[in-house]
Amino acid sequence: MAYKINDDCTACSTCIDECPVEAISEGDIYVIDPDLCTDCGACADVCPVEAIHPE
């Protein structure tokens, strides 16, 4: 199961540095590639607005 970033994302970039497989893409709202995501949860642990949740 991959993680997903919701509309609460502020594009702060904190999660990008935490992803060990570089599954997160930048944008107005960041996006996690479900094919690359390993479900480690590192991104969700560091998100300051709690915008990242398991899909």
- Overall radius of gyration: 9 Å
Average pLDDT figure: 97
Tally of structural domains:
1
| CATH class type | Alpha Beta
Number of H/I helices: 2
Our measurement of the CA-to-CA distance between the termini, rounded to an integer number of angstroms, reads 6 Å
Percent of residues in helices: 10-25%
Total beta strands: 4
N-to-C SSE string, H for helix and E for strand: EHEEHE
CATH architecture: 2-Layer Sandwich
Content of β-strand: 15-25%
Question: The CATH topology, please?
Answer: Alpha-Beta Plaits
- Uncertain parts: none
- Give the strand order of the largest sheet, numbering strands 1, 2, ... along the chain: 1-4
Overall 3D form: globular
Structural class: alpha+beta
Largest sheet: 2 strands, antiparallel
Overview of the molecule:
The protein has one domain (3-54): 2-Layer Sandwich (Alpha-Beta Plaits). It is 18% helix and 18% strand. The longest helix is centred in the N-terminal third of the chain and has 5 residues, at 14-18. The chain has 55 residues and is an alpha+beta fold. The chain is globular. The protein has helices at 14-18, 42-46, and strands at 3-5, 24-25, 31-32, 52-54.
List keywords for this structure.
55 residues; alpha+beta; Alpha-Beta Plaits; two-stranded antiparallel sheet; 4 strands; 18% strand; globular
Summarize the structure.
This protein is of the alpha+beta class and 55 residues long. The protein is built from two helices and four strands. It has a two-stranded antiparallel sheet.
